[in-house]
Amino acid sequence: MGDDQELSFARVNGVYLVDFLPASLVMGLGFGLAAPAIMGLGMSAVTPAESGIASGLFNTTQQIGGAMGLTVLSAFVSARTNSLTAAGKTEAESLAATTWPSSPRPDSR
Q1: CA-to-CA distance for 67 and 73, rounded, in angstroms?
Q2: In a 3-state reduction of DSSP, which class is residue 60?
Q3: In a designed cystine with 14, which of 4, 19, 47, 49 is the match (CB 3.0 to 4.6 A)?
Q4: pLDDT tens-digit map of 3-53
Q5: pLDDT tens sequence across 54-79
Q6: 105: helix, coil or strand?
Q7: Cα–Cα distance for residue pair 61/76, rounded to 1 Å
């Protein structure tokens, strides 16, 4: 199960140790294992004289990519939360709602 799917099951009144910590640990472990491998792969293609530039470029690209990703996701979540709140849901329900349409529950007819 993907980490984003693990976090999608978080409850509105969730507990950190049950709902968020497991997915956070898996995501941290995955990135911790992937980043050095990607860095090593990228550094193997440059000469030793250019290794400082390549390392700086990798780190700068990583920081800019993270900042841009966070900006886009924050804007999307904010717009989604505002639209659900305007539709009559509580703020907690809006924040916990999934980002895709869900099928109607049998008792909601």
Answers
A1: 10
A2: helix
A3: 19
A4: 556 666 667 677 777 777 888 888 889 888 998 898 888 889 899 999 999
A5: 999 999 998 999 899 899 988 888 88
A6: coil
A7: 22
Work out whether the CA dihedral 76, 78, 82, 85 comes out positive or negative.
Answer: positive
b (16+ CB within 10 A) / e for 49-63: eeeeebeeeeeeeee
With tokens 């993270």, the residue in question is 66
Residue 103 tokens, joined: 């099928």
Q: Whose CA is closest to 57, among 71, 45, 69?
A: 45
Q: Where are the alpha helices (DSSP H) in the chain?
A: 3-8, 21-44, 51-86, 91-96
The reported pTM is: 0.56
Residues 6+ apart with CB under 8 A from 10: 19, 20, 96
Residues 6+ apart with CB under 8 A from 63: none
